[in-house]
């Protein structure tokens, strides 16, 4: 695939088209964030209103699941949503391929979610308190908890990769067969699917983090109810 093409070498490392595209997206998002926030005002213009609307929508989505932790999670979950969306849409640019159509990229994102789950869990419940939930309701279930952590991380990576890659392949096949006769419906399908996949990836990350942060609280609430 085009994304596996080596563009140049950085010492012993081979820099592929996927890496270069990812760097370009990071640079683009960084410049866009700087430009959109460099002149914030109490009387917002159209650009600031748009940015505030996007941030508010993401914040409301997080508050729907973790009302008390939105401020903590918004930077990470919001960045995931924006990056995955832009990466998914990159395939619409002629000559470029979506970085998320590469398993190495989606595996890296899934690994980032895996680490963040434990980071936020420990930060919320404490190291011992967080690890203790792996032994509930019985220490016998510890291996199953560990298998679940690994399997859902693999599923998260493969799911995004499979959906984006299949979408790009389908678009390529349709263009080869029909030429440019159906470009608009095809582009709309790509945009809709890109938005849906980005949203689902962020929501799944939020669900996993929510479970880690609420594990100890759930046990505490159960103990209080039992005591009463």
Shape: globular
Q: Spatial order of the strands in the main sheet?
A: 1-2
Q: Give the averaged pLDDT, no decimals.
A: 83
What is the radius of gyration? 21 Å
What is the H/E string? EEHHHHHHH
* Unreliable residue stretches: 218-228
Mind describing the biggest β-sheet? Answer: 2 strands, antiparallel
Q: How far apart are the first and last residues' alpha carbons, in Å? A: 62 Å
Task: Give helix % range.
Answer: over 70%
| Number of distinct beta strands | 2
Structural class: mainly alpha
Count of helices? Answer: 7
Which percent range describes the beta-strand content? under 5%
Return the domain count.
1
Short key terms for the protein model shown above:
228 residues; mainly alpha; 7 helices; 2 strands; 75% helix; disordered C terminus
Description of the molecule:
The protein is mainly alpha-helical and 228 residues long. The protein has one domain (2-36, 47-221). Helices cover 75% and strands 4% of the residues. It is built from seven helices and two strands; from the N terminus they run E-E-H-H-H-H-H-H-H. A two-stranded antiparallel sheet has the order 1-2. Strand 1 (6-10) and strand 2 (13-16) form a beta hairpin. Helix 2 packs across helix 3 (70-89) and helix 6 (142-178) runs antiparallel to helix 7 (183-227). The longest helix is centred in the C-terminal third of the chain and has 45 residues, at 183-227. The termini are far apart. Mean pLDDT is 83; it is low at 218-228.
């Amino acid at each position: 695939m085009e994304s596996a093409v080596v563009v140049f070498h950085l010492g012993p490392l081979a820099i592929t088209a996927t890496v270069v595209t990812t760097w370009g997206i990071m640079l683009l998002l960084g410049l866009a964030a700087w430009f959109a926030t460099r002149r914030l005002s109490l009387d917002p213009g159209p650009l600031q209103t748009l940015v505030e609307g996007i941030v508010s929508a993401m914040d409301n989505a997080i508050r729907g699941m973790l009302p008390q932790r939105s401020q903590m999670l918004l930077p990470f979950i919001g960045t995931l949503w924006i990056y995955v969306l832009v990466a998914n849409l990159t395939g619409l640019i002629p000559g470029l391929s979506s970085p998320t159509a590469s398993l190495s990229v989606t595996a890296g994102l899934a690994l980032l979610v895996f680490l963040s789950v434990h980071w936020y869990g420990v930060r919320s419940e404490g190291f011992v308190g967080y690890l203790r939930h792996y032994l509930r309701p019985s220490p016998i279930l510890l291996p199953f908890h560990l298998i679940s952590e690994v399997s859902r991380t693999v599923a998260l990576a493969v799911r995004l990769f499979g959906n984006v890659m299949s979408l790009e392949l389908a678009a390529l096949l349709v263009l080869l067969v029909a030429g440019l006769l159906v470009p608009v419906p095809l582009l709309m399908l790509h945009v809709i699917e890109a938005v849906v996949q980005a949203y689902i990836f962020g929501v799944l990350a939020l669900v996993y983090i929510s479970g880690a942060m609420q594990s100890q609280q759930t046990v505490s609430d159960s103990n209080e109810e039992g005591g009463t």
